[in-house]
Predict the structure.
Amino acid sequence: MPELTIETAGQTTVMLFSGRLDATGVAGVWDTAVKTVENPGQAKIRIDLGSVDYMDMAGATFISHVLCLAGGTPTEQSDCLTGVKKEFTPLLEMAEKTKDQTSAPPPKDSYIKKTGKDLVASLEDARVFITMVGEITAALFSCLKNPGRVRWADTWMVAERSGVNALPIVALISFIVGLVMAFQAAIPMRMFGAEIYVANLIGIAMVRELGPLMTAIVLAGRSASAFAAEIGTMKINEEIDALTVMGMEPIKFLIVPRIIAATLITPLLTVFSNLVGILGGMVVILSFGYPPIAYYNQVVGFVSWEDLAGGLLKCFVFGLLIAATGCIRGYQTLRGPSAVGDATTRAVVSSIILIAVFDGIFSIIFFYLGI
Amino acid sequence: MNDTIINVRHLFAGYNNNAIMEDLNFDVQSGEVFVILGGSGCGKSTVLKHMIGLVPPVSGQVLIHGEDMVAARGKERNRLLAGIGVAFQNGALFGSMTVLENIMLPLIEFTDLPRKAIEAIARVKLNLVDMGHALYLLPDELSGGMKKRAAIARAMALDPAILFLDEPSAGLDPLTSAELDRLILELARTLKITFVIVTHELESILTISDQVIMLGKEKKGIIAQGDPKKLKADPSNPYVYNFFNRNPS
């Protein structure tokens, strides 16, 4: 560790350094040295490095910084320095040469300016999103006219990854939702001897609301993020640019197969989710001593085809939203290491927001249609 | 420039017990610019990763100041690592931090210096590599050459005695590459830093290196060693001669 001895000789304060002036050692003397130099009663400073055994760039920077604080012209500053060993001279010269070449920090935006910038960025984001929705819609119609142009191999592969591979997680979540809901509903209903009507509640809630919603949320977390990450990585690796310059349309090539696959598998997954959720409710009812047929009759007698169709229509739209959002957010990926992570987060958040908004819209529409 | 700072002894380089280089032995002298070169895929970067303790070799020793980097564990390893700096091929700057914050990070983590002191040191390091104008930029906003210079500044943050550079000139235009060569030479000569550089950029090798070793894929070892200018002029080993003179055989 270096040592700093401060002596006064007439009008001059002498700072005697000894030992190792490196990054570790400088930490121990930095504050003392700076306070000494900044003392307003100070007339003249002299820095003696005669007893310094070792100096690196951190030490040279420190000496240069102290000299700078001491003020005066460069010549006066160098006169303040005594006992400099030959091997330290290049370091001190380099530190002196390089200390004042840095740029100032950029000015911070005021709150109003920052809010304005955020608003402009949000509007721009919305504009790009809407434009892409338009382009995707046009591409989908174009593919509907010419189904042969759809990349069906890719579509089936995505359907398998997003659909078949999602069956276990959809089953687990739906079963638990059905089970928990049945238990919670059974507590008040039991007070009136109406446990069997838990079956009606589970049936209608799963088919109309929870089946589509749970499936959509699982797909948003699983598939929208995957689509955003895949397409985002392709964007960063310039694969999308490569497709464009080869004359292929990235939207038709990458996005349309994902949207078709997700839109087709979401209703299928929802039907599966409904069945497993209802099964979860049945476990509770059976535990109350009712036979399975009683539960079955209650569900089938209460849930109508309109309920099922309404739920499936919703999840068809959810599938479209999830896939489109995931792909668009991936397509909007910027540069940099956090870009794919940001795109993935935005894909999941946007998907869930859109699912919630559209679920509300469907509820209002179904209410007025009397479904 | 006479003390040996790194000794590589019986190093079998590779992954998962598959040696792609066998029984490598070489020494790096203090203060020299030492270049590891060879054809693409011969294992240059793997050897470098063994030397910096990032990947354990199949077997062998890498002695830095006489202490084995391969065998070092825990605090001993951290102490050895504090004495070296590494600049990776693409810079490996932390994307969420400004250039200045990238350089300040090791100083914050490994010293007790006050914040102002850390910033002053980081600024000097960035000025050394001519990046004083880019302190508050994010790595995304830098060109390839700027990223490499900032990476060198970060590697120098703690004033290491040895700097390892992986492909410093790769992907740079000739002017930027020459500028980087000048910087390496200046740092080596002024600050007495020992450089170990992996590259196959001939211009750079001939400009900056004091000593090279050339790795051969087929021989799985060192096929040439010494002053690059002498190797370029020596036709006794046709592969090495053709490599240095860009003659496809």
